[in-house]
Write a structure and sequence with these properties.
- 53% of the residues lie in helices and 4% in strands.
- By secondary structure, it is mainly alpha-helical.
- The protein has one domain.
- Strand 2 and strand 3 form a beta hairpin.
- The protein starts with 10 loop residues before the first strand and ends with a strand.
- 42% of the residues are buried.
């Protein structure tokens, strides 16, 4: 299964959620757009029924087409790809790109171009994702619903950061870019002396690693922010105590994902952190 979303009680139509009805992190508006259907009073009930029955494959397709690919996550090594993908889902694509600019020290222009990639390529990946995580925390604290969901939001960032750092440590990843020698336009910008096994599979082409990347995000979906278009189940957000329980579950899920990644790197088929 591509997605590992724990439990079936993932549908929410919380009154505090500006995104409205949501299932597995997919809002009704996003789902309607993906299905090519108008969202109005006449179609709402039908679309909600379809959303409640949404398959993991459809969720994965929406995540990839709406967030992972437009956010250029495949240009980054796994730790940054995870942090940036998670931010795109949680904060929105445009906000994630702007936060990435800030974290890398690049001009905040809304595009991931040569200048942004050059700035990213000059940073140690762990330092970069730690800076990115702190920017995300600041953004959460400025939101009007922080009083209600703040603890869950911050724990989500902490869990994402911990997983990214564990990936970096497990495989000795220090770079943030897959191909630091190339910018977005294909122009050489810096030297690259790393050798690549030509028989190896690029990590972003690995179904196992892609699945665990999505699983990492999906595992902590109960902590997603409603103010940013991703819903929280009502029973999870009733009290801070419930948020703490959910956070523990999320961290446990992330730990399991880390083990899966480590096992995959130990498998007989070589996986390259760079695109051949």
């Amino acid at each position: 299964m591509l997605l590992g979303i724990p439990g079936d009680n993932t549908f929410s139509d919380d009154p505090y959620d500006p995104g409205g009805a949501t299932n597995k992190g997919i809002t009704l508006e996003v789902f309607a757009s993906f299905e090519g259907e108008p969202l109005d009073a006449a179609s709402r009930d039908s679309l909600i029924a379809k959303l409640q029955a949404i398959s993991d494959q459809t969720v994965a397709a929406i995540y990839r087409r709406r967030y992972f690919d437009p956010a250029d996550c495949s240009a980054f090594t796994a730790p940054l790809a995870l942090m940036h993908f998670d931010a795109a889902v949680n904060h929105g694509l445009g906000a994630a790109i702007r936060m990435l600019h800030q974290a890398a020290g690049a001009t905040v222009d809304g595009e991931i171009g040569p200048q942004t990639l050059g700035a990213i390529g000059s940073r140690d990946v762990v330092d970069l994702i730690e800076t990115y995580a702190e920017i995300r925390r600041g953004r959460y604290r400025a939101l009007p619903h922080f009083w209600r969901f703040g603890r869950g939001w911050l724990k989500r960032v902490d869990a994402t950061l911990a997983l990214g750092k564990s990936w970096a440590a497990a495989d000795g990843i220090t770079r943030a870019l897959i191909e630091p020698s190339l910018n977005a336009k294909g122009t050489t910008t810096m030297s690259d002396t790393t050798t690549t096994d030509q028989s190896a599979k690029w990590w972003a082409q690995s179904k196992t690693l892609w699945g665990t990347l999505i699983t990492a995000a999906a595992t902590v979906l109960p902590l997603l922010t409603p103010a940013l278009g991703v819903s929280l189940p009502a029973d999870v957000i009733q009290t801070f105590g419930d948020q703490a329980i959910s956070a523990v579950q999320a961290v446990a899920g992330l730990f399991g994902t880390t083990l899966a990644i480590y096992g995959r790197f130990k498998a007989s088929t070589v996986i390259s952190l760079r695109k051949n």
